[in-house]
Structure formats: C-alpha cells, structure tokens
Amino acid sequence: MIKLIYKTLIVSSLMVATTLPVLAQQLMVSEGYVRATIPGTNVSSAYMTLKNNSNSAVTLIGATSDVSKRIEIHEHVMTDSMMSMRQRQQLVIDGGSQVQLQPYGYHLMIFNLDQPLVASENVTITLQFLQGEPQKVVLPIHSIKKLSKDSHKHH
Ligand SMILES: [Cu+2]
What we know:
CATH topology: Immunoglobulin-like
Number of helices: 3
Number of strands: 10
Radius of gyration: 17 Å
Distance between the termini: 45 Å
CATH superfamily: PCu(A)C copper chaperone
Shape: globular
Oligomer: single chain
Strand content: over 45%
Helix content: 10-25%
Largest sheet: 10 strands, mixed
Structural class: alpha+beta
Bound molecules: copper (II) ion
Order of helices and strands: HHEEEEEEEEEEH
C-alpha cells in the first residue's frame, strides 16, 4: 500500500513538470457554488461535484481560502430524526467515480468570514489532497433565496 502511494507520487510530480497540474486532469470540479451569507451570520458552505477521472482514489483532506482561515469538510447526518453536521477529516473519491457536495450532504463549511459573501461575486477556494498538488477553484456565490426554493420541492 505504501509502495503504491509512493509510486503515484512520483508519477504525479513527473506529470506536473511537463503538463498542467495533474489533478486538474484527474479530478474535475463542476457545478460548484458558495452560498451567500445570511445577514447577521459569518458562516457559509461550498458545494460542488468532484469527479475522479483516474484509476486511483483521490482523497480530499481540506480547503483554504482568502475569505476564511477555517474551512472544514462536513457531512450532514440523521440521528434520531434530527439533522446534524459532523466534521470529516477526509473525503475519498474512488477512481472513476464522483462525489457530490450538496445541501443536506457533504459540504465545505466556511467559518469566521471577515466579510459577507454577496451573490454574483466569486470565492476562490484551494482544495487540498492527500495525493498531488492542491487545486484552485473559483466558485460563484449564489443567494439563499434560490436555494430554499429548490429545497422546497423536496418537502
Ligand atoms: Cu457544516
């Protein structure tokens, strides 16, 4: 197992030298957005689809951004019919599969925002992985109104 990871790392660094960041090809980020902050709060969540085009697993271990010093990987869990959030140390995206970060599922929780996040602006988030280079994504900020309208359909 350790040997295998070591091998992957060498291959990755070789590819970085000759082409674009390797994870940009292996891991595709789509449908990403960040929720606009609710007035009076300083937290938000980021959602996206992570698609792993490689044969080996890619492990998300965290994220950073200029807008906050504290971003955590979270998941929503149902306990005794109550929805609560739980922090995860990592999120594994198996080779050839995809994981969705979405409302009431996995998300990146953004804490201690210095400034409110305003709809139609962008947030740059750097995703950090166990394997390979960090990957920068620019996500649009969507207003909460649109979100609650969408989630209404499920009720
Ligand atoms: Cu959360």
